[in-house]
Amino acid sequence: MDFGMAGSKAQLRQLILLCGALAIGAFPAFAQAPATVASPAAPAEEPGISKECTTPAMTIRGDVALPTLATALRERKAVKILTIGGSSRAGADPQNGGYNATIQRLLETSLKGVSISIVDQGISGELLRDASERIKAEVALNAPDLVIWQVGTSDAFSAIPVEEFEADLTETVRWLKQHNIDVVLIGLHFVRNLAADAHYQAIRHGVRRVAAAERVLQIRRYEVGEWREKSKTGNVPADEFATTEAGYSCMAEYVARAVSAAAFDKNWPGKPRN
Amino acid sequence: MDFWRGFALVTIFINHVPGIYFERFTHRNISTSDSAELFVFLAGWALRLAMGKTPAELPTSTVVRRLTRRALIIYAAQILMTTMALAMLAGAARALDNPLLLEWHNAAAVFYDPVNAHIGLVLLTHQLGYFDILPLYVTLMLIAAPAIAVIHRSAPGVLLPLSVAIYLVTLTFRIHTPSWPVAGHWLFNPLAWQLVFVLGFCCAGHDGLGGWARRHIVMLRRLALPVVMFAACVVWFELWPDPTRLPEPRLFFIGQKTFVTPIRLVQFLALVAVMSAAYPLFSRWIGPLDRYLSLLGRNALNVFCVGSLASLAAQILRFTARGGIGVDAVIVLGGLVLLGLIAWISEWPDRKRS
Asked: With an 8 Å Cβ cutoff, is A18 touching chain B?
């Protein structure tokens, strides 16, 4: 909902500045992105996806590359990842360090001989507009090669206007790309009761639109949950899957696999032929 | 002091409902600092007033005992508030059949890793989002305040330099206060925020920094006004420099809440200097508002606790109703009435006695 105020403030800001001047195609479907950097040697092995996390959608991925990550792998054998966003600090095997540690472990297994460090700066419940401000400072302080950003859920819960959300997300993704930092967006959770919620869905599609327009990798968490709901596979109900340890473990596997594959610009089985 | 503490409580209540229409009218939209600095600064100020007497009138051991008791009360408030907040999230998740609410505001560990999370809650190493300032306050009252009291009475000239030194070392080496069991760190780093507390303590006195500031208040206000105006322009027009182009150590040049970086701290002190002149000018015109905010400020802990829970309730309500200016107006008006009522009830025993 835009009450008009945000727009008027932006217009006023533009007016005054003007016056002053006069004076993952799919992962299920990751979006396309240019692969301008030569691929380094292929990984020893891509992180496997455990049986309970397998979905048909996983057999498809697009051509999104992570050029900065690839360069870091090739030249430094060391990668720094910044994780940020509303729920990046939740779930997944807490006894062994949680979601980020799981990603780190899987990537280190996959990228043998490469040092992976993950800087976790997630604040649960943080809105995108606040994360957008903070992310720039964290980039300046930590100099990551890759940002993994869980985005949208808090904004959907807080009824942030979709236009404002998309504008902030676009601006920040562009800023990251301008600073040669790869981005992976992780979209909203699937929750059965929110399947018909107009605002939740609008924010979800907003993430998708920005990922496609800016050509950055997106992990489509919602679609995975939705598929599980439709197929009713696994022992965990789809909407609980979104938030349980099992759900986060699978998400860590998806992220590790997507990052590993995209960094090496390597086709996955089932990659659509262009 | 009570007026400004009440002001901080109201703005914290509003800002703790992210996305609410009225958050655009709080001062953080034109300021690099926000109410958190004011809250901690005034806590330090109150500490100085509480121990303003000489050691003969109020022995240091008595001061330390009282501070410890106060810290334990705040700790108990934090535990109670967190428990109620978790129950609210769990209740909302059940009522709305939405498991995502179980992990809102860092609550996930409590529901999915309860053994470790409960230890973390008691140790204050696990904090819910928007319920993370009282752990700072507990730490300051339990550790910093007794140390401040002892140093102030034994070697007053050491207090501020020592505090500044701890702050500089913390920023230089980026020393975090880790959270557990969820990997991460405290949103409010006590090693950095102790300086705001100590500055409040020092400024409240009529000797040392406080005395110097009072003697040079006119000059300070002249210096402070451009700082406040410049910061307002930077925040309003989003004129922040690219942080990747700032010199090292960058933490000294970027705005960051965790470390209450110099950009926030200097602007906050400038704001204090300016508003200290403004208050006598406008206080005569805002009698009822002055009385209301002072009432809140005199009962800060009770009001803060209820306000924090009311903010969370408001977030759940906004989620259910999908926001809207009407809902937001009801939330703000209802919240302000509730805060006033809590403060009024808190003073009921005193009124009855008198």
From this structure: no
For the full predicted model, state whether its pTM sits above 0.90.
no
Structure confidence by residue, pLDDT tens digits, B122-168: 999 999 989 999 999 999 999 888 899 889 888 888 999 999 999 99
Tell me the backbone φ, ψ of residue A198, rounded to 5 degrees: -60, -45
Residue B93 to residue B86: CA distance in whole angstroms: 10
Alpha-carbon distance of A238 to B17, in angstroms, equals 29
* Closest-approach residue (CA) in chain A for B20: A158
**ipTM, 2 dp:** 0.85
Q: Do B254 and A137 touch (CB under 8 A)?
A: yes
Give the closest of A13, A87, A130 to B103, CB-based: A87
Q: Which A residues 88-127 touch B at CB under 8 Å?
A: 89-91, 94-95, 97-98, 100-101, 120-127
Burial class (CB in 10 A: 0-12, 13-18, 19+), B133: buried
Phi, psi of A210, deg, nearest 5: -65, -45
Q: Considering only alpha carbons, which residue of chain B is nearest residue A175? A: B242
Edge-to-edge strand list for the sheet holding A146-150: A115-120, A78-85, A146-150, A182-186, A217-219
Residue B231 to residues B79, B247, B267, B303, Cα–Cα distance (Å): 37, 20, 7, 30
